[in-house]
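seq as requested:
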Amino acid sequence: MSGVIASVVIIATSLSYSALIFSGPLAEFLPVGIASGLVGAGLGAIVFAVMSGLPFAIAAPDSKAIAVLASMSTIIANNLIGLGRADQAGPTVIAALLAGSLIVGVTSYAFGVLRLGRWIRFLPYPVIGGFMAASGWFLASGAIRILSRKPLSPELLTDVASGRHLAQLAVGAAFAIALAQARRARHPAVFPGLLIFTTAGIPLALLVMGVPVPQAREAGWLLPLPATSSGALPVHWLYGALTQVAPDEILKSAGDYIALITVTVATLLLSIMAIEVETRAEVDLDHELKVNGVANAVAGLGGGTVGTLSVSRTLFGHQIGARSRAGGLVAGALCLFPLALGPTPLGFVPVPVLGGLLLQLGVGMLDEWLVRSWRTLQRADYLQLIIIFLTIVLFDFVAGVGVGVIAACITFAVSTSRVRLVKHGMDRSNYSSRVDRPSHHADALRRQGSEIQIMWLHGFIFFGSAHNLLMHVKEALTGEEGACRSLILDFRQVLGIDYSAVMTLLKLRHLAERERFDLVLAELPPNVALSLANGGLLREKGDASCRVFPDLDAALEWCEDRLLASSAGVAAGKRSTREWLEAELGAPGLFERLTNYLTSIELQPGEFVFEQGDAGDSLFLLSSGRVTILFNSPDGKVVRLRSMLDNTLLGEMGLYRGAPRGASVLVDEPTHVYRLSDEAFDRMEREEPQLAHAFHKFVVRMLASRLDIANREVAGLQR
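struct tokens:
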């Protein structure tokens, strides 16, 4: 049932499309055009039924592609007639239609093989909308041309005002309104039933009124097939007329073929998206592209016109319970059946039915893409849609392709420039390097943290986003209380950079030189580093104005060291281990009592305080020197977690949890540590409970301080 009902609609629309293309000077080739449309519809439906990942898929000629073909055919015919080669118009147009099917077939199949389906999903929606709206306009204006036998023009309006063509236009418009209402009906047989009833009813009405068939054709009520019409298939007909084909005119239509590919692929994409939503099916777009390619290639070789997956026919079949491939096979076979009868029966098809069907399709597309999209699209996108629509209507689809590409690029550039290039921005008071420093160093860095600004960049840097970055840096520098000493830009998540952006960043370097702050670049991707070097931002090694580091931590550590070296009073704040611990424990003399439980150890560079996996049976007080915390990951990589300087704790987590060491501690320079074993700790709790209590509080404060730093970093990264 799905195939039978779908075939009625497909045959009717195929006749309408053929009448649209083969009108005016091409009217005598209408029988060949009808055969071409039916061949394309039948073969396309059969191929989709056999190969598609959707068993209930039904393909059909597509109105948007037909609008492109109709525009291209009119241009070819007018060009040849203007050159005095009118005898070549029909054969050239037929050859151009078959070439379009083959080109779409090969291109679509190549898209599928190259797995470009996911990229096609990035086709801008306004570009699609502009093409669809323009297709609707050509269908609607073509319907008027079919009904009145004149193009939409002031002359036609004058004729209508005088009463000519008024009856045909009125009947066609009434039928279009009836079709629009039938589409809203719940019962699926209403729409095809109306088509059959009207197709049979108008000839019967003419017969009852006593209007002869030749007179009815002359008046524009019946399809005006020439008296010499034959039932030759398009391929056979074209083979006999090859000498009359003008290849130069077909080559001139290259731009139209690009538009044809764009419209067909976009229609397939939209159809699949709609079917996925309605049926909850997962569709492989790359596979469907290959199916679409095979279907159009087979149709082209058989003499048929372009087609693709029909969302309305497919969803109709799914709604009435079709789940097998029988529906598409039946629809394809029935579309080919009229070819066996010849063109004579088709001469009784009413023109108002064909014109009304095109009018309903065209007006429906104009309503969807020009009226309803106003409520759903952003104003910039809607303006882009209107520009593409008007370009196609006033010029052609080739111009629409060019304007669409330019508009999409401009829109993308503007939209991307609005995306924040600076993913996060903080200063040193909220984000520190992986170096645990003595308390007087940490206090100084916290007080003067605003003098080190850090910005995490992401995405692709081009002229728009780079300018926004420059403005952002200027605002950040003027908004800080103290002068900026260092600006760190982290490039780890940057994908690339264009030349104009390099020039903008060069202005940032000049700003750094003028304002006397260090420009520090961290983790530059190789392609970005090469672009910056070629653009003059990165110069010889030892450049004092712009420094490059392999990662953010190394850059931040360098900036911290530089800030501490220039800070007054930092050296005066240095405390001995005795002073540090007595301040932390809360009373003089506790350090001497604590040393009764400590073991003094001197270590040299390259030695380990402890290694990952060792028993956590002690903690260490780092008296002087520098160590690095290393983690051996499961994949064998050694990761630097932190570095620690004097006056801090090591290994306290292992002691308090009684767990094996989670990382190793490597000595970087001559280092002095005090070891407190778990046995000595237990003994201190028994012998010196007051000292043990003070020591516990000291450890808690150290952990709380580290947690506070981590919380500041998390809060800053979430802004």
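The longest helix spans residues 689-717.
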